[in-house]
Design goal:
Rossmann fold, alpha/beta, DNA polymerase, domain 1
Length: 304
């Protein structure tokens, strides 16, 4: 079994999610199985849990329980699999987004700034696109867009220019090589935060993370039963903004649509149960520094 850290906001998220011990629940980001195991602890004999994960390492953590099913797939295909297995509607869905501690700590995956590794960053090693392809093949304008949109770096233009200039002479193949090329763009004392944002932008593009998140959230309105729960734990503002907007408006603009004739606000699929996202306690942050950036939003499915 791969070594995974204890999941963030474990008790709080499962408390918010499980409202019926005989319900059907979905963990769309299985990882080390921490959330899934706690959900199963709360379920009765008739309860069911379906988990999704596209990472081969996570599949090694599967749980031997007749109430449990693990599907090796990106959660953007959640609705198709649930329909195939005749599991719609479900009682609740949990999404613990972003990269896992195990993926960060596995040097060869290329997710971490701490190791010299190939520019990979694939969450699904069956996927074709890698960070190396992005760095060496994307046009300058596209690189600039990625750094600006996915990490909100003010240096997006100069970063892209440096990469394109360097690769014209030599292919960029490793994480340390990329950091060496870009180190003049950092401010002393803020190197870690800077490179974390660079890596975040590349990882999001490699895995199409925001597109997948949007698709999954839209499906939640179709598959969650009335009064069922949606729990989303995010780790950066881009994810949290999408979750917040979807819960508030049923779309990603955050603006509730209005009836074209009468101008009345259209019905939205969910109602937020916490207006401000829940955050990890200082005790949890001391045990797991990744918890510092965690934000948890909880919503209930409205009547149709």
């Amino acid at each position: 079994m791969a070594n995974y850290h204890e999941p963030v906001l474990l008790r709080e998220s499962v408390d918010a999610l499980v409202t019926d011990e005989d319900g059907i629940y979905v963990d769309v980001t299985f990882g080390g199985g921490g959330h899934s195991r706690e959900i199963l602890n709360r379920l009765g004999k008739k309860g069911k849990l379906i988990a999704f994960d596209q990472d081969e390492d996570a599949i090694q953590n599967t749980i031997d329980d007749k109430r449990f099913m693990l599907i090796r797939s990106n959660f953007r295909y959640m609705k198709n699999f649930l329909r195939y297995h005749h599991l719609i509607p479900v009682t609740g869905i949990l999404a613990d987004l972003g990269i896992s501690s195990h993926q960060i700590d596995t040097a060869e995956r290329g997710f971490s700034t701490r190791f010299d590794a190939s520019l990979d960053m694939r969450m699904n090693n069956r996927s074709e696109l890698t960070a190396a392809q992005i760095i060496n093949e994307y046009p300058e304008e596209k690189l600039r867009e990625i750094f600006r949109e996915y990490s909100e770096l003010r240096e997006a233009r100069s970063l892209s220019k440096k990469i394109v200039s360097y690769r014209a002479e030599k292919k960029i193949t490793s994480t340390t090589e990329l950091m060496e090329i870009l180190k003049t763009e950092t401010n002393r004392g803020h190197e870690f935060q800077f490179f974390a944002k660079v890596f975040q932008a590349l990882r999001i593009e490699v895995n199409r993370e925001l597109d997948a998140l949007k698709e999954m959230l839209l499906q939640c309105g179709d598959v969650i039963a009335e009064k069922g729960r949606l729990v989303v734990i995010s780790y950066h503002s881009l994810e949290d903004r999408l979750a917040k907007s979807f819960i508030a408006a049923g779309n990603f603009s955050g603006e509730v649509e209005r009836d074209a004739i009468f101008g009345k606000p259209a019905a939205t699929p969910f109602t937020a149960l916490n207006k401000k996202p829940a955050e990890a306690s200082e005790t949890e942050i001391q045990k797991n520094t990744r918890a510092r950036s965690a934000r948890m939003r909880v919503a209930v499915k409205n009547p149709i």
